[in-house]
């Protein structure tokens, strides 16, 4: 990895903690330039987006005729997925809620999911991972000393959701992903979770078990589910005027939803990874990406973001307690966990991967199928 002089974007708050960041003559970065040139056209566009949402809902309902469900939503108990379920109910969709249980749920997220299912009247199903195998995979990614610590979860979620979609003949999976709050995210902060060559090398090198029960979702799985089974992943939050603060207020008032204390803290592991491990070990602060997107959409000011970034992303008083919990859950000692966290950081480019091949493959897909 080549080190460079520190620089921060003049317009958003992305900086050289993204090792691939590029700045123009005005000192603006490639991330916010790309947002304004390309991604901003994919966020809510008023009447145009309203019409697109209406057409999407009609197609989903048509696909569900004669079936128990129109669509499936993967629900975590967090803001995005819960608000998506709220919108789906208002649009008259018959939804199957599916939660992939990887063993790290917070109590609040479990209660949120139950409230959403009960109050909205949606059926709910849990896909429970084999803990011993999944734990070994998570530990392998920790030992690899890379930022993609959450890849095992990220790849198991679509794998599980597609399996259940096939089981019920569901053609639409609704995702809470959205450009309004997630439009900016550097690739070096989280490399492609669908690269099974990368995943399997990490597991073979640092793990102890073969992957037999954990659902995977590489490019071959994606091609099969999309082109053979005709399953589509769609993102309805891109067609509504999505504001997280307003969404939280509605969820709290209408559905008894409770906030869990931070971005992705619906999972105890994800919360610790993003708030502590990534900023401390890799100097990756996910708040920069979120704030930069919100600056570009006009939801917050750059001054507000800079003030927030002055604060620690974690509570120093709770770090030892959280470390002990993580170590015990992963069946390692606190000393072993500290050794892993203190190992020199590496990046996906340090290990065998299919980046070149996958880029070409997705370019071909976009050209001929989109």
Q: What does this molecule look like?
A:
With 370 residues, the protein is α/β, with parallel strands linked by helices. It has one domain (45-281, 318-369): Rossmann fold, CATH 3.40.50. It is 51% helix and 6% strand. The chain is built from 16 helices and 5 strands. The protein has helices spanning 30-37, 47-63, 79-90, 107-120, 131-143, 151-168, 179-182, 196-206, 219-228, 244-255, 268-282, 286-297, 302-309, 319-329, 334-342, 355-369, and strands at residues 71-74, 95-101, 123-128, 172-174, 232-234. A 5-stranded parallel beta sheet has the order 3-2-1-4-5, with helices on both faces. The longest helix has 18 residues, at 151-168.
Please name the defining characteristics of this protein.
370 residues, globular, five-stranded parallel beta sheet, alpha/beta, Rossmann fold
CATH architecture: 3-Layer(aba) Sandwich
Biggest pleated-sheet summary: 5 strands, parallel
Order of helices and strands: HHEHEHEHHEHHHEHHHHHHH
Unreliable sequence segments: none
Dominant shape: globular
Count, helices: 16
Main CATH class: Alpha Beta
Mean pLDDT across every amino acid position: 93
Physical arrangement of strands within the biggest beta sheet: 3-2-1-4-5
Which topology does CATH recognise? Rossmann fold
Rg, rounded, reads: 20 Å
Specify the helix fraction band: 40-55%
Q: What structural category arises from helix and sheet content?
A: alpha/beta
Would you report the number of β strands?
A: 5
From the N-terminal CA to the C-terminal CA, the straight-line distance is 36 Å
